[in-house]
Model the fold of this input.
Amino acid sequence: MKEYSLLGPAAVRTLVVPIGRWERESFLKKVQLFQERFEARLVDITPLEDATFNPQGFPQGRLMFWFHTSMLNEEQMLFLHDFEPYRKTFVVVGLVNTLDQDPLTSLEALQKRYPDSISHNLVYFGVSVPESKNVYCATSSNVETTVCDIGRNFLEALSLYYSSYKHVTLRSPGAVGGTSVTKTSLMRQPATAPASTVSRVASMDTSSNSGLKRSGSIKSLGLNATSADQQRAKARQCKILGNFQLLAGRYVDSLNNFADAAFTLHKYHDYIWLGSALEGLIISMVLLSQLRVSFQVPAIVSLICQIKDFEQLPHATRSHRNSLSSAPVQSPRNSVSSMSSKIHTVDVQNITLPPLVKALSEKILHYYEVSLLHNTEYAPQVVYCEHVLRILNYMSSHYYPRTPSKRTAQLNGSQSPRNSISLWTQDNSADCFTKWEICQFSNKLFELQLKEMDLVSQIKIYTSLACIYRDIEFHKKQSFVLRILLVSLLPQLESETIFDFWKETQDETLSSLLDAYGIDRQPEALIEDAANCSWVTIQKNILLLCIAMASKIYDKRRICDYSLILLQRYSHVLTQSEQNSLLQNNILPAIDSDSTIGYWDPFLLRNLQIMHLENRREVPQVKLIGVEESRETKQRHSQVFNPFKQSVINSVTDQKRALETAKKFLLGETAELVLTFQNPFKFNLEISHLSFDFEDNKFVQFLKNSTITELPFKVRANSMRSLHLPVKFLKETNGETHLLQRLNVGVFGLKPTSLDIVLAENFKNSGDQTTSRAKFGCFEFQVIAEQPEIEFMSSTLNENTCMILDGTKKSFEIVLRNQSLCRPANYLQFTHITNVEMNLKNDYWKNIPPDDLYDAEYQLKWMQKNCIKIRNVPDVIPPNTSVELSLDLDVTRASFQFSKFEIVLEYGYKPEGTACSIFTKTLRIPFDVTLKRSLEVPSLEVVPLIEHIQGEDGALISTDRIVGKAASGLSEETGSALLLLDIRNSWYDGAKLRVHFEDYSTEEEILASTNTKRFVIPIKRYSFNHNWDHKEIPKLVSGRQFVNSGMAQDEVTIMRRKFWCREAILKSLKCDWKLQDASQTAGSLDFRQFLDKFDTRTVDILYTQRDSPFNVEISTQKSELHMGESLRIYAKIGYNQKHPCSETKPVKLEFLIYNRRTGKLLPKSNTSILYNGQLSKRVTPKYDSEITLDLVPIDNGEYEVGCCLDSVFNDVPVYFRVI
Amino acid sequence: MPCYFAIIGARDNPIYEAEFTSQQLNSFPPELKELNPFILHASLDIIEDLQWQVNPQSINSGSGSGGFLRSRNSSNNGNCYLGKIDHFYGLAITGYLSYGNMKFVMIHSSNANGSTLAQVEDWSVRSFYQEVHELFVKTLMNPFYKLNDPITSPVFDSKVRALARRYLLK
Done:
């Protein structure tokens, strides 16, 4: 039975005590047996002589026992025993399981122990004793019989007990208890007797005119007062009898008695007793309707509820209420009151009980409130509260559930006690209360100053209220009430009884509280929880409360648990002092007793890395050998641009971006472990322990004592800090990668926990399926065995630098040593790289024309192949030995930018057999070079040569060689030209030099320092047969794809012509020199660097190719004449055989006369030369094959006459001198 | 009279909390300040009960004590405003429910520090709620605001406080 069930006043309080040797468990089981059979039907009980409580008087009735095992707070409620006699523990039942004592002795002892109870019984379990009065043997099956017997005993005792009450003047609790009684203290103004009631009652009651002044009027009106007192006393007696009859199960009688009492008490304004009588009335009615006994609603009910019922209830009760108002049945109970003729009594079938109960209850509360104005006749707070709770229980036991499922859950749920009034749940919804109504009714409790009551009552009230809220599924309200309870309990937990009480129930209470406020969420582990925010203020508050409660009962384990939750999940709302005290007072002290507590922040370890020490030796890289890489894939469609080819080509010059996935460490190497810890808390963190996992520990270990010296490591509040520790590698990973994913970390001396490396927190995004709370990191590494170690010892060059003259060669030696004591370096790859190559961009070739590119790449190729050469490359360098290497440095064709180079040695140990990959290291030996200019070529010119110069003695030049060659028929006649070459000596010493062109050599010349000399070399012009127009400029690097340069066809042709002309000259032209110094340094001159691209005119001279379909040959008879002499110039037009089409259209021919000294074109009219006719003529080549121009020079000088045919110049002009 | 106002999201999490006090009026005593969220949280049960009623108006009008809810001014679009839904000692609690299941709840305290029950002026409180609702809808339109996340905008805060000054702290 619930603590404040509506039917509580109808239940006989029965204390069950153990006698003999009981185990708690089995005793409680037996008690439960009784609790399940708490009802005894009166029809089953042997009749009594006493008429008042004779069970036969109302055989449908029941005796209800309320079996309990403790008498908490019994004494404090003693003052209420006259007012509400059901509070007394009437029956004591001793459960016996041994035969140690005689039954009668035991019974006497029981009576002595509980003298206040009126009926004492012994029930033997498991042993048999002769049954006598008050002594029974019970088995599980006949408990009902025993309960009936106990009931009969009780009824007998009750009639005795009641007889003692018959002549007692009943005083109100306020009068009995005096000042110790807690008066009901309302927050609002208590109600006063409503005017309407007063006026209406006044018409019935002549003794007083208002409820307020009743006591005064009693004194003033002596006679009436006495009779009023007598009437009141009688009514009170009547009410008490009703209470006893309720206990005895005679509900019809109790209904009548309560009704009678209420009527009189109402008349005499004895409000507190009136309230109590009405409560009894409600209970009687409820019980009777539960038993389906028809009865008539007493007249007093219609009297009291008349106003409210008929004015306010019609909505809720609908048609039922109407039946009450218009009930045609006249009450036969005229004897009760003279008013009965006016007031209708109603049969119970015509009304719905629950709304009536509520209406009556509100009336009762009103009377209680009115009573508060009196000094002694007031309602104690306990009475008021308990009434509210009883009605609430009644309401909640059949509220109107919204959904059927909830309704059935309510019916079948284990939490609803067996004795809940199941009959009513079949009522239709109109009879039921809504949650809202229940909640509103419950709020009446919050108008009272509950904290002024004694603690046990408070606990009972709050827990009952919480249960009611639980039943109507108001879990937030339930938690709220529990929280109020805990807060009010907190300062008073020192009291021992409460202490024990609390200790028993705390588990359930606190955990249900944590659930209700959502503290069971796990944001540290579940991404869902982390994404959703919750009401942290409330949650923090509740946890602090829980901690306080736990600390009151010295439950260290629980204090620690709650503190951990608080720290772990709510650190962001805790102040520094709160966090500190949680840690210092709650968690750290618990460590000693409980070693299972781990650190609470799973994201402590934010990073882990192992770094190479600065002084470490180079770690070898894996290199594939033996497998030929076929990088040059066959390109089937070279015309198709393939954008993906880019990266392959770039990689030729791309600096190798070593994509290191796993770091490599040498066996036995010492490296630095860097750990980053986070401390989100407002206290300093102390890392007390660090260790690797078992698997990791095989490969890597902390260096001895390093953890001892570094730990404990402090991480300041709200910060991240890195810890550096030396580690050592112990075991080879055999080419595989080892993953370091977690580390064991202990904090504050707590049990070390294995922590993942957390790089970043994951956040919940819509549509994102990540369930992991964080992004975890790992550290990959490899441990490899010892490798050869080659060092550069020395070189014959001073400090690896040298100065060298351009165009010369030099040799030097270097010494290398394998420092390893056990491993030979048997894989050696020497290469070199110069600064010229290093400074090139990846796409240097992209935007330069092909002829320039050829030049540049020609030089690069030469630098790669010929610049540095190692003469004696060793196959192997044995351990601990040195080798000497001889190198040649050749700068004959080196670029002027050449200033440094590196010799790169890639080496490693290649084990026996067919390993396809080895570890290699790279040794780089840098050298600096200063290149000094020696001989240079400032300019080159080509002039056409018309006349033949005989190779006579003393002649500076001769064309014999060329002419001779032509004559021999080896090549066709192309004419000749002179190559004018200036050579300058930029060095400090003089130089002997000789210039060669094909098979021609000049005499050996001596060129003094900083002097320039011009060399004239007669050469042959190149014939058209070379077909340079269609010969592509070669590409030295294949596989590149050029985007179309946008050059027109003729531009390309011109470029090709220029290129091939220059190539032809460069091929033939050579120059050797020797310095006139002590060392006789010799070298050669690389013309390629000095010669610019040829201009169009040079090409025109060198290459007898015409684009025009015609060519014009100009000639004169004389090349020297006197002023005034006339000169005829012939221009002979011929067809160009090589040109594809020859047309016969008329063309314009124009003579151009230059002053040869100045190189300027003479104007058409001038003072130097007179001419006959016009300079420009229109000719048809077919017919006018020869044109003449007569001119007379009138000024001396040298002149040149050229010709222009359709704006195409002729090849060879004529010169004449005027003297 | 000081008020404590909160917007509660779908998972019973506060989206916005504010306490409206003014200099000439008393503010909440410290112990009540701590209790306010709890009182408010407890009232959510009632709102949740009310919001599922088929015909919310009918449930209160009949019974004697709960008749104030929506019995007044229920003719015009007032079904968001739930009126006074709960009380705890001297504090009255009013509620407002948006169609998106956002619960606007406010605790009204009386001037005389809890000795008398706080009076709620339905008209001004309703206006306050309606305007805050409007502000909230505007906040929802912010593409950077996610439903059920706390509102941290100072503009929203200042606007709500201005509304409170206009309607509540008179």
User: Anything to note?
Assistant: Confidence is low (pLDDT under 50) at residues 56-77 of chain B. DSSP finds four helices and five strands in chain B. The two ends of chain B are 8 Å apart (CA to CA).
